[in-house]
Amino acid sequence: MDFEINTKGKDLFLALSTVSLILMMFITTLLWWFISPRLHEISSILADISLTVLRIFYLILILGTILVYLTCYLERNFLIAHFAVAAFIKVLFPVTLMLGRLFGFNKDRLRISFIHVNNSFVKALRKKFKPEDVLILLPHCLQNSECNIRITFNINNCKECGKCSICQLKKISEKYKIHIAIATGGTLARKIIVENKPKLVIAVACQRDLVSGIQEVFPIPAFGILNERPFGPCINTTVSTDLVEKAIKCLVVST
Ligand code: SF4
Questions:
Q1: 3-state SS of 118-159?
Q2: What is the pLDDT of residue 80?
Q3: What is the enclosing helix (H) or strand (E) of 31?
Q4: Cβ within 8 Å of residue 160, ≥6 positions away
Q5: Which atom of ligand 1 is nearest to the CA of 159?
Q6: What is the pLDDT of residue 134?
Q7: Facing residues of 139 across strands?
Q8: pLDDT at site 2
Q9: Is 99 in the pocket of ligand 1 (CB under 6 A)?
Q10: Across residues 127-155, what is the average pLDDT?
Q11: What's the rounded Cα separation, in Å, for the pair 2 and 137?
Q12: Which pLDDT does position 6 carry in this prediction?
């Protein structure tokens, strides 16, 4: 599995996450230091227990961080890394985003870096999924804005006129026998996921929607591919169909 899609650029997010963790450790230590005299007054056992709990918490954080780094850079599946990856995707992202903004980093740059990290986690699974277990999820803005055909409920309605990427993507889904769907928003995307119960989602969207989608569908792995927006957000967007096909070749069993 040596393809390179959205896998570079992880450093920014990983570095900021590590700083977030160090800050969290610093703040909890400071809190403990403030309340420890009071704890000692109540009971020295209570103070000892709280210190032990804090040390175990730090140990988990440090081990988790090491596992996340190893998973991300070696793209290997460390069994116990699942918990660390879950915490990373669900909890650490908002903290890191906040910290990044404090340091003056652009929100979208951070989101893109998060997507790179997430894609490494998916690749680290080193697993090929059956086509019937995979769902390609697309945003509605890929459809040409002048096209009146309703493709939201059935992409097969597309007449393949070639004016937008939908035509190519439809052909890719037929070639690899993978279910493909278009979502007009988060609610419909959730409904599609619930109905199809995929084991892997290959999602195309802007950075903001990809990040929220990846977090929402977790623990289902979601491989994110950024769309391109030559006319600005949410209108006549496009996507590299090569990237979509490469992701399929890497993550799906060929039929
Ligand atoms: S390729 Fe399909 S969806 Fe796109 S404009 Fe043509 S008919 Fe409409």
A1: HHHHHHHCCCCECHHHEEEEEEHHHCCCCCCCCCCCCHHHCC
A2: 58
A3: helix 11-42
A4: 167, 170, 171
A5: 7
A6: 98
A7: 183
A8: 41
A9: no
A10: 95
A11: 24
A12: 45
